[in-house]
Amino acid sequence: MFCSSCGKPLEGDVAFCTNCGAPARAAAPSSAIPPGGTAPSLPGALPPSALGYGAAPTHVPPPLMYPYAGFWLRFVAYLIDGVLLGIVAVPIIVILVLLTGASAALSNMGNRPEDFVFPAALVTFLLLMIPILICGEWLYFAMMESSSWQATLGKKAMGLIVTDMEGKRMTFARASGRFFAKIVTGLVPLAIGWIMAGFTEKKQALHDFIAATLVLKKV
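The structure corresponding to this sequence follows.
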């Protein structure tokens, strides 16, 4: 008797090999193995996967529950979000204008052309406004799309959700990456980065490819 795993001779009627721990069984004679084949399985022999070797099963992602959302559905949802964000942004801009004194400086600029108050007020206004609006938009998209809704208000109105490549809910980090990836999408000439959502296989825009996300239509 020899161990079929390591080839070490087995002494006596042992159940397991003392060298490698594999179940003891007689090695198949070379004549019993067909050319180009493998040794036949013996009764009670464990499968290779149970012994810790053999090919690992291939992971197959589950099928998506919903179809991919087309370009025009996403475009309308983006317009809705733009209008809603604009409504919120207007009072913020008015408050910043009043706080920085940009409106008062602008009204007096014609009387004193040499006055540098308006340029200073304008720079202060822009330094405050741009970060506030960008952070507000980022938190809106990232928090809404990583929430249980998986959608902004515009996408919710159009019956859309944003997921990862397996149709699962995104993390906040992935949703944030998707938002900032839109900067790259916007840099592509002729808006091709956005238009890609109309002709790619899974209706993905450029930022969807970067963040590995999908936009699906709930039916």
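Confidence is low (pLDDT under 50) at residues 26-33.
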